[in-house]
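JOB MANIFEST
job_type = single_chain_structure
chain_count = 1
residues = 135
[input]
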Amino acid sequence: MREHVLIRFDGVCHLCSGVVQFPAKRDRAAQFRFAPLTGPTARRECERLGIHPPTARPHTIVVIAGSNAWMRSNALIEIAGRLPWPWRPCAIARVLPQPFRDAICRWVARNRVRWFGKSDACATPTPELRSRLLD
């Protein structure tokens, strides 16, 4: 059995909700677990690994597996690399310079609410997704 992978996300941004729904629908092994950045699980795991407080950077996606953590573009690449075909090859983006990838992530993050909108609350998850949501 593969380890569970925690994806820490902003639950009210439509783009961030999509970042949760996309891997959840394609994750046949059900390895991903999801925690809103404002919840106790994300806060506890980030503190355990010495990562900035979860609410300090709501625009930063964090992926945690065991004692490893990935942020921004590395987090997205880690998600892709753990998904089945045809998504796994997207992890090849790792060959691009990280400053370039992260600059794109920061640009999208700054504009995500304007481009994709936001909700007053997290979207209602499907029963299958609900079982993988923490907090």
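[summary]
The helical segments are 14-26, 40-48, 72-82, 98-116, 127-130.
Residues 5-127 form one domain.
exit_status = 0
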